[in-house]
Write a structure and sequence with these properties.
By secondary structure, the protein is an alpha/beta fold. The protein is built from 19 helices and 15 strands. It folds into three domains: 82 residues, 2-Layer Sandwich (Phosphorylase Kinase, domain 1), CATH 3.30.200.20; 184 residues, Orthogonal Bundle (Transferase(Phosphotransferase), domain 1); 269 residues, P-loop containing nucleotide triphosphate hydrolases (Rossmann fold), CATH 3.40.50. β2 and β3 form a beta hairpin. α9 packs across α10.
């Protein structure tokens, strides 16, 4: 009787220079002195990932030593874990088990990778990064060539040569080599140690996903300084504008990962996984993806008590009534909220956003910065950029509707907005150069372009809510824009401003803290209840007179006359109703 055959058993592998010489190698990548290869051992029929570096090169040698040091913290479900080390006459080699189809994600990028395949790769990469972060590690060098994939759909991270512990990142910031320059987070580029964290890895992952989709990174440069400038100052072209079959929401998620400010990126890789799973499910079931707000799965940075504000029923009612009036009438209003630092002014506005169910193209915020008072329209630019990026994630019908309103309102002056927010050209197209005018006229032109931008996002029955926080630190251009809003209010906009009581509003000649009281007095006068002998429209007329003085010549005076007439009409029909909520200082969250 013949005994059943048994699988051939091989003696344990002795990993040494002789074994290495007997393998066949396919190079997967080579960067910064480290070579990655897929090895095949003909004696055992096994495959291995080998990462090697010259012993004589201290820098690359240290990379492999760091990978070996971190091996106990890596897991084979999401990382290539070194299981053996070989020293040859001149090289150090780390080995990890691999598959016959093991390859890097950098081997196949661009339109040849289908959208379903991109979803699978993106979800697997995000899961691996989430697991790594849960293990307390920052990778520091994420790029397609450090994502190892195979035909089973598995994805594992490799290239941990620059990885550090999350808790140690601020003491030993990752310092990847030249190969990482196209993927370098802005905070690392500027050496901002305090802001390095898990979101730094997510920026690099965003660049990698962009490259997988398009076939190239979003920025191009030929020197370290040029790369740093690109990451710090240049906005990427949305991937859906470079590849037609990229869903708008996928493009929006990639751009969220690529935000210059870490606070504007995904808060965690786990939240990214959640959104990508949602994208894939809708794409597979319907062939399209309904717009939604990215990163909604992340917990808020400040704990909430059931999402409620306590003891602020009056202020909540006033704010809700203002929004309802704008929604029903289309006549814009300005609401000012005063209070001490940390008193809940922002919480009140957040509540309004939740209560009204506003989406990302009808609700935007900007925040003045004490250190950025010399940057024109700083908080307004933040808000317009957020609106634009949200719009790029909408379906074509929504985008076209806003584009048509925007172009009609700008009337050829689009460059005034595009110079401040370059991303708007992805919506409205290339803009024509502006004519040279005196500085005061240029400011007035900028104000008008911004106001008409607000109007483009506001719709009948769906007003735009724009929140500008920390007005006590507002730059002069933002202060001037608020004054222009009171004189020439666009339709369907609820503009909310918050400022700290007890601090003057910056800039001589601009609004100061008492302006809030003057505006409130103007509103009471328009309602026919003047106090202390106040005259209706005094402040609006004063603002127009300032514009008249800076407008220049006869044309400026004519514009001032038209502006005063508009201000009078606005007062009569309550288009610019101003609400002051000085008691919003103690809202609890």
């Amino acid at each position: 009787m013949t005994s059943p055959s048994r699988p051939e058993r091989h003696p344990p592998i002795v990993f040494d220079a002789a074994w290495l010489a007997g393998t066949t190698a396919d190079e997967l990548s080579a960067a910064d002195g480290v070579v990655s290869e897929r090895l095949f051992d003909p004696q055992t029929g096994t495959y291995w990932l080998a990462r090697s570096a010259l012993m004589a090169s201290a820098g690359t040698h240290r990379q492999l030593q760091n990978e070996l040091r971190l091996a106990p913290r890596l897991r084979p479900s999401w990382a290539m874990v070194p299981t053996a080390t070989i020293w040859t006459a001149d090289r150090m080699v780390l080995l990890a088990p691999a598959q016959p189809s093991s390859r890097t994600a950098g081997a196949h990028t661009g339109p040849g990778v289908s959208i379903p395949a991109v979803f699978e790769m993106a979800i697997a990469a995000a899961r691996a990064v989430a697991a790594m972060h849960e293990q307390g590690l920052l990778h520091g060098d994420l790029r397609p060539h450090n994502l190892l994939i195979d035909d089973s759909g598995a994805l594992r991270l490799t290239g941990f040569g620059h990885a550090v512990g999350i808790d140690a990142a601020r003491q030993s910031m990752p310092q990847p080599g030249p190969a990482a320059l196209p993927y370098l987070p802005p905070e690392i580029a500027r050496g901002d140690v305090a802001r390095v964290g898990v979101r730094s890895d997510l920026y690099a992952l965003g660049i990698a996903l962009y490259e997988i989709l398009i076939g190239s990174t979003p920025f191009q440069a030929n020197a370290p300084a040029a790369w740093h400038h690109a990451h710090l100052a240049i906005e990427p072209v949305p991937p859906q504008f470079r590849r037609n079959d990229v869903p708008g929401m996928l493009g929006r998620i990639v751009l969220t990962l690529l935000a210059k400010d870490p606070a504007d990126r995904y808060a965690s890789a786990a939240s990214l996984v959640s959104d990508l799973l949602r994208l894939r499910a809708e794409w597979e079931s319907a062939g399209r993806i309904a717009p939604f707000r990215p990163d909604a799965a992340s917990p808020p940075s400040i704990p909430l008590l059931s999402g409620q504000l306590f003891g602020r029923d009056k202020e909540m009612a006033l704010l809700s009534q203002a929004w309802s009036r704008v929604r029903e009438s289309g006549k814009s209003e300005l609401v000012l909220i005063a209070g001490a630092a940390g008193s809940g002014k922002s919480a009140l506005v957040d509540w309004l956003g939740r209560e009204t169910g506003l989406d990302a193209i009808h609700f935007a915020t900007g925040k003045s910065d004490q250190l950025q008072r010399d940057i024109p329209y700083s908080p307004v630019v933040q808000a317009v950029r957020a609106l634009t990026m949200a719009l790029l994630g909408e379906d074509e019908a929504a985008l076209v509707a806003v584009r048509e309103r925007w172009l009609a309102g700008l009337a050829g002056q689009g460059r005034a907005v595009a110079e401040l927010v370059p991303e708007v050209e992805h919506v409205i197209g290339a803009t024509a150069p502006l004519s040279d005018v005196p500085a005061a006229s240029a400011r007035a032109r900028g104000d008008t372009a911004m106001l008409r931008t607000f109007a483009a996002f506001g719709e009948t029955g769906k007003p735009l809510v724009l929140f500008i926080d920390d007005l006590q630190w507002a730059d002069a251009s933002t202060v001037g824009l608020l004054e222009a809003f009171t004189a020439q209010p666009p339709d369907n906009v609820l503009l909310i401003g918050a400022y700290r009581e007890g601090e003057p509003w910056a800039r001589a000649g601009g609004w100061r803290h008492p302006a809030a009281r003057r505006l409130a007095a103007g509103r009471r006068a328009r309602r026919g209840r003047p106090r202390g002998g106040g005259q209706p429209h005094r402040d609006q007329a004063a603002a127009v007179r300032r514009s008249d003085r800076t407008g220049g010549g006869r044309a400026g005076r004519a514009a001032g006359t038209r502006g005063r007439a508009r201000a009078r009409r606005a007062g009569q029909d309550r288009r610019q109703s101003v609400l002051h909520l000085p008691a919003a200082a103690h809202a609890d969250r």
